[in-house]
Amino acid sequence: MNEKSEAIKQKVQQQFGQHAQKYVTSTTHAKGSDLVLLKDWLNVDSSSIVLDIATGGGHVVKSLAPHAGQIFATDLTYEMLETAKGHLDSGASNIFYVIADAESLPFLENTFDAVTCRIAPHHFPNPDIFVKEVSRVLKPGGKFLLIDNIAPEDEELDDFVNRLEKLRDDSHVRSYSEKEWKTWFEQANLSFVKAEHRKKKFNYPDWVKRTTTSEEQVKIVDSHLLSASKIIQNYFSIESTNDRIQSVTIDEWMALVEKH
Length: 260
Fold this sequence. Notes:
By secondary structure, the protein is an alpha/beta fold. It has helices at 3-18, 20-25, 27-30, 38-42, 59-64, 78-88, 127-137, 155-168, 178-187, 204-209, 215-226, 230-235; strands at residues 49-53, 70-75, 95-99, 112-118, 138-149, 190-203, 239-241, 244-259. The chain has one domain: 3-Layer(aba) Sandwich (Rossmann fold), CATH 3.40.50.150. It has twelve helices and eight strands. The longest helix has 16 residues, at 3-18. It is globular and about 55 Å long.
């Protein structure tokens, strides 16, 4: 691992270790409309062995555990995984917790029937390596479900939203585009099955405070949004009253692929 990637991952561990409980209670993470679709998209049943990468608060595991044979909740950050275990500890005997780097998974080839990763890859420094690792641990015919914030194809909009995320959360690396993801899927022998694109609206005061560490940082994020052009403000549906931002909307992508 190069020094830049190592530094990014240390920053992620620091950020998520510090704010672990916030990700369990976050409405965005806990109540997303995508959670009810997971079982049917993946065809998970009592024989399925499932891997959830960068589990965060464990919301994907909570949705799938009642239907799966075994499910492995993994995360790079010990404190985050420990918090997820506290959230999920309801006597389920089929959930296993493993500290794991998404770009270097501690599992053998052809192990899992399904792999999931939700609202996390924008923190990964090497998404192409991550996708290859997913393909490696999937069984032939196994499915991978990716859910994450994505960048628009337009360069100006892409620059704006990634700058926004970086100002709000220093552990953010990049929201990638659909085109980039599809290229990495193809390189890793993963066939595209289907996808849904949705607009995700955030309650701005809650969203900005989840990751910022000072009022000064919040003001910098505010300024970035309020100084945006009308085209950008319209695209991201930036709603404000008397320069107090109420909400912002970004793009999210839910994509299902299958190993050749």
